């Protein structure tokens, strides 16, 4: 049976070695590289590709979230699992937007670490219970600080009422293209993916 190859990227040697020691003896997981910074990690990735990258946020050269964003473009198939003590709102939301597959605190235990690795390798996401709750609160707080323009609010409300772009355009005396622009701007501000999600958000927050 082939083992899950792991790279660990953290600027603290004690953390790198500590995470590696947690995985010693796990039959289906093998640590292939320990990287002290993003530059070393990128060099290792150019030579060989692991199955999972365990990544810290506070790196000395390139911020871990920025590195995750770069790797999402250059290596979109590589699952990234953040292991960090930086669990504030900014870093949690940044990590999710960067496309990471999971997030764990640095005091993670061996059983949960192995479970998270196996989950992300299989294509699933894994956030520890504490991180999940913090992330949920962070997203709620973020939405609470978002301010849509009046036109964006009007567009969202009319979409929630079931009107088409053409109908909304006639009611607001704007073109269909402008209606779509307002909708897309609202989606971007709210971090939503499609009209259905915007309608759901509107019903909860504007209706």
What this model shows, in words?
The protein is α/β, with parallel strands linked by helices. It folds into 2 domains: 4-141, Rossmann fold (3-Layer(aba) Sandwich); 146-205, Arc Repressor Mutant, subunit A (Orthogonal Bundle). It is built from 10 helices and 6 strands. It has a 6-stranded parallel beta sheet with strand order 2-1-3-4-5-6, sandwiched between helices. Helix 4 (89-97) links the parallel strand 4 and strand 5. The radius of gyration is 21 Å and the shape is elongated.
Features:
207 residues, alpha/beta, Rossmann fold
- Main structural class: alpha/beta
Summed up, the helix count is 10
Order of helices and strands: EHEHEHEHEHEHHHHH
Global outline: elongated
- Mean pLDDT reading: 90
- What are the segments in which pLDDT stays under 50 over at least 5 consecutive residues? none
Q: What count of domains describes the coordinates? A: 2
CATH A-level architecture of the largest domain: 3-Layer(aba) Sandwich
Q: How large is the radius of gyration?
A: 21 Å
Query: What portion of residues belong to β-strands?
Result: 5-15%
Q: For the largest sheet, list the strands in their spatial order.
A: 2-1-3-4-5-6
* First-to-last CA distance: 55 Å
Largest sheet: 6 strands, parallel
Corresponding CATH superfamily of the largest domain: Response regulator
Per CATH, the class of the largest domain reads: Alpha Beta
What is the helical fraction, as a range of percent? 55-70%
